[in-house]
Write a structure and sequence with these properties.
Blueprint lengths: L1 H12 L9 H6 L29 H15 L10 H10 L6 H9 L2 H11 L13 H26 L6 H21 L7 H10 L4 H12 L8 H22 L4 H8 L11 H18 L3 H6 L4 H5 L7 H21 L1
Helix pairs in contact: 3-11, 4-5, 4-7, 5-7, 6-7, 7-9, 8-9, 8-13, 8-16, 10-11, 11-12, 12-13, 13-16
This protein binds fe (ii) ion (FE2).
């Protein structure tokens, strides 16, 4: 009877029936959201390992097993970036690229053109004068920031294009954008430049989007629909391998492929451990800020990530402050939008 009750609660809250015994960890998980509460915040950590221990109902478990089978067999669809985006990104990867060639490509794409003008004139990049041409915009941003801008715009369009489970896609996107802002803000405490930190964090959980599409497609054959518990279990089980496959498909380069494929167990990422630790830290900072868990947030000064990144103890409180400022700037911006 007790076990049945535990399972029921586990399903209701999308958490494990054999939940961690650490009371503090338990307290950090917020109550389940009602339909009227805002979508993006506070959020639970949908991809945490604890989600793997959730016990699903038979029908959902079958769906989970089918998704597992499809992933192992490589039978899943990966979203395609627009051709212009891929072409501009390929050129932007080449330090000797012809700026005029890049500008011409962007010019032929109205969405990218307007995004470039908007970004170049935004507070982050703006000079004294607004830009008057796309060429000026490319020059102002530089190739690395241009690549970030294109990926951000293309990804946002793709993931929010309504291929099913849009509510969750919006939530995952909001989290990725917030984690990316935090990673950029804390980059001066690490070896990373701000553009690289932003991009790594924006893309680290990219595997969740094909998974949502797969769940939406697969669930059409079942009556019950897709629950948060099932999404959490699928994310926890598969978002890294699917992320690796998607980053490879988008030709994002070795580092992004490696981080998308292995960031939770960052210390085991032999090639890009620091990059994986950075996104893991930014993710945790965002999570505790969104939960308004001050104690958990402060404990991050002693997290394995800050140790791994070699951030000196004297600078760790400043790092937390930088993360907090980035988070509240973003929240204010969202509230005003
Ligand atoms: Fe993740």
């Amino acid at each position: 009877m007790l076990e049945a009750l535990k399972n029921f609660l586990s399903r209701l809250f999308g958490r494990s029936a054999h939940a961690p015994t650490d009371k503090k960890e338990e307290d950090r998980v917020p109550r389940h959201r009602s339909a009227k509460e805002p979508i993006a915040r506070p959020r639970v950590n949908l991809d945490g390992e604890e989600n793997l221990r959730v016990i699903l109902m038979d029908e959902e478990e079958n769906l989970f097993v089918e998704i597992q089978r499809r992933i192992k067999a490589g039978q899943f669809e990966l979203p395609q970036l627009r051709q212009t985006s891929m072409a501009v990104m390929a050129l932007a990867n080449d330090p000797s690229a012809d700026i005029q060639e890049i500008t011409n490509l962007i010019q032929a794409d109205p969405v990218l053109s307007s995004q470039l003008v908007k970004t170049a004139n935004s507070a982050l990049y703006s000079g004294l004068e607004p830009i008057t041409s796309l060429h000026d915009g490319v020059m102002r941003l530089g190739l690395r920031a241009l690549r970030t801008m294109i990926l951000t715009a293309s990804m946002k369009g793709l993931v929010l294009s309504g291929k099913g489970l849009t509510r969750y896609a919006e939530e995952v996107w909001a989290q990725a954008a917030s984690v990316a802002s935090i990673a950029r803000a804390i980059s001066p405490f690490t070896e990373f430049d701000k553009e690289k930190a932003f991009l790594l964090a924006l893309l680290h959980d990219v595997g969740k989007f094909p998974l949502l599409a797969m769940l939406a497609e697969q669930s059409k054959r079942y009556k019950g629909g897709v629950t948060r518990a099932l999404i959490g279990k699928a994310f926890a089980g598969f978002h890294e391998p699917v992320g690796r496959a998607l980053a490879e498909h988008w030709k994002l380069g070795d580092e992004l492929v490696s981080v998308a494929g292995n960031h939770h167990d960052f210390a085991s990422n032999e090639d890009f451990g620091n990059s994986a630790a950075l996104v893991s830290l930014a993710h945790k900072l965002d999570l505790y800020l969104s939960l308004r868990d001050e104690a958990g947030f402060l404990e991050l000064t002693e997290s394995p990530e800050v140790e791994f990144l070699g951030i000196s103890p004297a600078r760790r409180m400043d790092l937390l402050e930088a993360a907090k400022r980035a988070y509240s700037r973003r929240s204010k911006f969202k509230a005003a939008a």
